[in-house]
Amino acid sequence: MNEVWIALYIFMLSAFTGFEVISRVPVILHTPLMSGTNFIHGIVLVGSMIVMMNAQTPFEMVVGAFGVFLGALNVVGGFAVTDRMLEMFKGGKK
Questions:
Q1: With contact defined as beta carbons under 8 Å apart, do 38 and 47 qualify?
Q2: Which of 19, 23, 28, 56 is most buried, taking the most CB atoms under 10 A from its CB?
Q3: Mapping DSSP to helix (H, G, I), strand (E, B) and coil, where does residue 14 land?
Q4: Are 46 and 64 in contact (CB under 8 A)?
């Protein structure tokens, strides 16, 4: 039970830290930083797949599946934003 509290504490600390860091990023830098951090979303996706592989209870399977869903959503969203950003830098049709 102590491990659950430690994991919850780490989760809350990382969520608070992430919110504080992201909220202080200027708007002009947000899209390039998001496209540069797509690999982090991939790490989340791989980590949640590992959780699902090692799941022993239905609750662990649900948490792993939810992690896979959110990780995949982040990867797709990150690449969509990157593609949209790169479209802005393409020249007009000749």
A1: no
A2: 19
A3: helix
A4: no
User: What is the per-residue pLDDT for 34?
Assistant: 67
Q: Domain ranges for the chain, please list them.
A: 2-88
Q: What are the strands, taking DSSP E only, across the chain?
A: none
What contacts 47, CB < 8 A, 6 or more positions away? Answer: 67, 71
Can you tell me whether residue 36 is helix, strand or coil?
helix
Q: Output phi, psi for 45, to 5 deg.
A: -65, -45
Residue-wise pLDDT for 49-66, tens only, equals 888 888 899 988 888 888
The model carries a pTM of 0.57
Instruction: Kindly write down the DSSP assignment for every residue of 71-94, as one continuous string.
Output: HHHHHHHHHHHHHHHHHHTSPPP-
The segments of the chain whose pLDDT lies below 70 read: 30-32, 34-36, 91-94
